[in-house]
Specification:
mainly beta, Immunoglobulin-like, eight-stranded antiparallel sheet, 8 helices, about 15% helix, about 40% strand, globular
Length: about 550
């Protein structure tokens, strides 16, 4: 859908459990010798209010240092206190939205978003504007990621179909971009997170999506957009930073060669397309040479070829544009509160054929690694660290399952991601495998697999066991200190085609199916031949990077 708007005592465990999260947080500041903002309070306020900025590296005294809010520096008399880890300042006159920076010695901190409450629109009360949807109330008026809320109003439509609800989303601009007030973008509620519980003419019940920040909510339908209503995101135990946007144009094809066939016959192709997420956005179809049988069918585009003729060929070609952001997280694990009512912890801890989390050996290994740890974030960290150090991860494809990888202590990117998910689910941590492609400096792509786990009130946290172990394709820009970086952070040198496994149903129980377990998407069906197709061959191309733009 088109967008409506264009972070005895076992000393080793103590170190990793208590200090490593802060090491990750401080990596930005310490290595680059720049100030780092951890939080601002309030996030939504008025001109004249007191803004408190907490973080590190601000300097013990102000001297020539200063802050900017939406590009506006407060006057010298506005500063109340200036310490190395805390600044208080009176908010100057502003527009609507803006980014807060700390400037010291010619260097600029990471930004956080501040919103001017005076510029926020009020909820629309009893106002009718044709057929466009109208929001009258949101209950509750604030909530955490994954929480269930209700939007009351009118004109939403009897069913969702092509409609959606959008929350404010914000990315860090390029360091070379001018500091100006900018309208934040939006993120839609995700099906992966069981986002929509009810959609009716006068009420929508939904769950707050991963990546949402305090700001406006709006409802979009085929008849128009609602006026925005303000909503506050609360309870986050940390921050997520989306930055360093890269825009990719990609192309790929499927070639079908028919050897023997007679009518009637049908060939179905489930062709994956890039998925939308908090860090992968604005997935736009640029071209295709044939209209699909079903658009956006469970994470794929379904094509139907009918009455194919012997000794003929058919080509399917697609091209997409997609924006990918580097995602970095900082999280205070002691602030996590598992009190939500989301179905995610139930559904994404279930075993499956790919993720045998109920296997006794998997359960035993998970318990041994975790020990007495009860914090889900720290449990996930221990599993990740064990996997990259003890899992025998290597770059050569092994064609092994998660259970084989565990038994043999040898894994590749595919089995390593599945094994992490199995261990995590055995430890009651919601986790999903992710599939896509990595892109090297020569703009060549290669299939790759990683994982995400869910923290209630915070959202999905990425990790890449293969890259964390230092195993990367040739000519790939592997991040410094990969073991630390690839837990909780993800680079922008990849395109995601599936999050979790897409379990598709056959179109005909008598159809002959083709499975491609180790391609750039995780789905159980790729092709299905029905009727008089006696012999055919298919060639699925690699993902070709036809263009790349770095912001």
């Amino acid at each position: 859908m088109k967008s409506p708007l264009e972070g005895s005592i076992d000393l080793k465990r103590i170190w990793y459990g208590l200090f490593l999260p802060w090491c990750c947080l401080c990596l930005y500041a310490c290595k680059k010798d720049v100030p780092f903002i951890l939080s601002i309070d309030p996030q939504i306020g008025m001109s004249g209010d007191i803004l408190t900025i907490e973080g590190s590296g601000f300097g013990a005294e102000q001297h020539e240092s200063y802050i900017t809010i939406a590009g506006i520096p407060p006057t010298g008399s506005s500063y109340l206190t200036w310490q190395d880890d805390r600044i208080t300042v009176r908010i100057p006159a502003l527009g609507g939205f803006g980014l807060v920076y700390v400037h010291r010695d010619g260097k600029k901190s990471n930004p956080l978003l501040f919103s001017n409450r005076a510029a926020m629109p009020d909820l629309v009360q009893n106002q009718v504007l044709g057929l466009a949807p109208q929001i009258s109330s949101i209950k509750p008026e604030s909530g955490s990621i994954g929480a269930l809320i209700s939007i009351q109003g009118s004109g939403f439509g009897a069913s969702r179909e092509r409609s959606g609800v959008f929350f404010t989303w914000n990315a860090e601009p390029s360091p070379t971009a001018p500091e100006v007030t900018q309208e934040p973008e939006v993120v839609e509620v995700f099906e992966l997170e069981f986002g929509y519980e009810l959609w009716s003419e006068r009420e929508i019940r939904l769950r707050i999506p991963d990546g949402a920040v305090s700001g406006n909510i709006l409802v979009q339908t085929p008849w128009g957009n609602s006026k925005p209503a303000f909503f506050t995101i609360t309870g986050k135990p940390g921050t997520k930073t989306f930055k360093e946007k890269r825009s990719y144009t990609i192309a790929y094809t499927v070639d079908i060669q028919v050897q023997e066939a007679e009518a009637p016959n049908t060939l179905y192709l489930w062709i994956p397309h890039p998925v939308s997420s908090a860090s992968q956005r604005k997935v736009t179809l640029l071209s295709r040479n044939r209209e699909p049988f079903a658009e956006h069918y469970q994470g794929t585009t379904l094509f139907q070829l009918t009455d194919l003729v012997a000794h003929t060929s058919v080509r399917m070609s697609l091209s997409y544009l997609v924006d990918v952001y580097t995602l970095e997280t900082t999280l205070k694990s002691q602030s996590i509160r598992q009190t939500g009512d989301s179905p995610i912890p139930t559904v994404y801890t279930l075993p499956s054929a790919l993720i045998p989390s109920d296997n006794p050996e998997v359960v035993a290994v998970a318990n041994a690694i975790i020990g007495r740890e009860r914090n889900p974030y720290e449990k996930a960290r221990r599993l990740y660290e064990w996997l990259i150090r003890e899992g025998g991860i290597q770059g050569t494809p092994l064609h092994t399952s998660a259970l084989d990888a565990l038994a043999q202590k040898q894994a590749d990117a595919y089995s390593g991601a599945l094994l992490f998910c199995a261990l995590a689910r055995a430890a009651a941590i919601p986790a999903i495998p992710v599939a896509g492609v990595l892109i090297n400096r020569a703009r060549m792509s290669s299939p790759h697999y990683w994982a995400e786990f869910w923290i209630e009130g915070f959202g999905w946290i990425p990790l890449d066991p293969c890259l964390g172990a230092g195993v990367a394709p040739d000519d790939f820009n592997l991040h410094q200190e990969p073991e630390v970086y690839y837990f909780g952070n993800l680079d922008n040198q990849r395109i995601t085609f599936s999050r979790g496994q897409e379990v598709l149903s056959q179109m005909d129980p008598r159809g002959r199916i083709t499975v491609r377990n180790r391609d750039y998407a995780l789905q159980n069906l790729w092709e299905e031949a029905i009727g008089g197709i006696a012999s055919y061959s298919s060639l699925w191309s690699d993902i070709t990077i036809t263009g790349m733009y770095v912001q």
